[in-house]
Amino acid sequence: MYLSISRHTEKLMDNPNSHMKPTEVAALLGVSQRTLSRWHALRVGPARCKVGRRVLYRKSAIDAWLKANETKPVHTFDGGTA
């Protein structure tokens, strides 16, 4: 089940030094919390930190991960017929 992005999450996204909970990151990325855990185990997801038992994601780490995984189109469409 995917969660919608809450107003709290939107406020967190405005502050690059803020920390987000896995539920908020999952909603933001459109994946489940279990997927975030799998990504962590495979070392393919955004960086996270652990304080005691609490897992937190820095907003700046999520932004960096998204930027690193961004793909650019190989070709551009200049108009005309497709």
The residue ranges in which pLDDT falls below 50 over 5 or more consecutive positions are: none
Class from secondary-structure proportions: alpha+beta
Which whole number gives the mean pLDDT?
85
Tell me the Rg in angstroms: 16 Å
Strand percentage lies at 5-15%
Secondary structure tally: strands:
3
Distance between the termini: 37 Å
The arrangement of helices and strands along the chain is HEHHEEH
- Most strands sheet: 3 strands, antiparallel
SS field, number of helical segments = 4
What share of residues is helical? 40-55%
Query: What overall geometry do the principal axes of the alpha carbons give?
Result: elongated
Order of neighbouring strands in the sheet with most strands: 1-3-2
Descriptive notes:
The chain is α+β, with helices and mostly antiparallel strands. It has 4 helices and 3 strands, in the order αβααββα. A hairpin with a 2-residue loop joins β2 (49-51) and β3. The longest helix has 10 residues, at 33-42. It is elongated.
What's the short version?
44% of the residues lie in helices and 12% in strands. The chain is an alpha+beta fold and 82 residues long. The chain has a 3-stranded antiparallel beta sheet.
Lay out the secondary structure.
Blueprint: H1 7-14, E1 19-20, H2 22-29, H3 33-42, E2 49-51, E3 54-58, H4 59-68
Antiparallel strand pairs: 1-3, 2-3
Feature tags:
4 helices; elongated; alpha+beta; 12% strand; 82 residues; 3-stranded antiparallel β-sheet; single chain
